[in-house]
Amino acid sequence: MRQQEIHSFLNQFFTSTDCQIEESTPHSLTVQLTIDMDKALMNRPFYWHYIEKTGGVPNPQKLHFMTNMIDSNNSKDKKGEFIHFGSPRLHQVFSLTKKLGAYIRLFEKSPNQAGINTALYPWLCLNLKISYICDRKKDLFHSIGLNLINGAMLEDFHSHICQFEDLLVAKIPDYSYTLSPLIKPISGIRRIQQYVLQQINQQDHTWAIEARKRWNDDIQLLDRFYEDLDEKPESYFIEKEALKEQYEPRIEISIINGGMFYLRQDRFLSA
After folding, report:
1. Are residues 192 and 110 in the same domain?
2. How many CA atoms lie within 13 A of 128 on its CB side?
């Protein structure tokens, strides 16, 4: 997930949760939280308990995020929380997004003159996190869109959507109508999942081979430690199982969120 995408995602998230964006530059974001978002993000239960019990004036916190580490003479940009794909704060927002609404539906406004009906084509979008796990961990973010009329698939869908996000609205615009999907959404989800699995199978999995080698080396070391014992104690099997949990390579795929986007036919002609 690129830093520009993270910046756009945070902007969308806080705007949709009614937080005030006090300042937004290409590399930073200043957000005044609402009471609900302060409670959800800032972990201040005792403060809010006190305010609610005493009837005090609530004071939600203000956050300053840095989304691009650049050299700047602006002292404000040197302070704040740097947000990147691996940062705990971003994953906290991902979890909250999933909790608040894992599914959205948006329609593209037509630039056509009033009175001209515009057909909107259904696109299914899934935002996925792929985790490569052994004794190390690597997370990758994928956003994939599927046209539910012709089956076209578009990677990096979120970035494409962000380029015209000001044209997306929650209610179908006047003089527009939606086409019924030929591919059912549940079938679309299976297609995307199958596509992701094919992409994973084609990747270089040297990382897994190397993890198994480190795992085997530690098992040999463990065996040497207990080799003089006629009968292995329980601690041996506990340590051996712990090594398995630490080293065994695995790939986990999780859906962060998704949505239906009804877009003009010519929106992604190259897809």
Report:
1. yes
2. 24
